[in-house]
């Protein structure tokens, strides 16, 4: 006689849930990168890196892209600036 199939142990279920959560998180990250949705997050990370030495963590002598000198652009300002750049940038190549 074959023994009945064992039921998954709680640790196995937790491990499986953890793996599924990791896969879904990675898929979400990839999706956001492919659609450009993560661009503002990358902008904030870059801004923090480049302005880490500035007093009070904002533009200081460098200023900021939006000209206020008071820190990074808001998400709304960022997307507007990005759209304006895309409209004014001329791409002479075929691709």
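^ Assign residues to that structure.
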């Amino acid at each position: 006689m074959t023994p009945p199939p064992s039921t998954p142990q709680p640790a196995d279920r937790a491990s499986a849930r953890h793996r599924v959560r990791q896969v879904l998180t990675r898929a979400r990250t990839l999706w956001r990168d492919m659609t450009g949705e993560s661009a503002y997050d990358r902008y904030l990370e870059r801004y923090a890196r480049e302005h880490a030495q500035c007093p009070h963590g904002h533009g200081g002598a460098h200023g900021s892209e939006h000209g206020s000198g008071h820190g990074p652009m808001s998400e709304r300002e960022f997307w507007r600036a990005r759209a304006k750049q895309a409209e004014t940038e001329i791409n002479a190549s075929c691709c």
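DSSP finds three helices and no strands in the chain.
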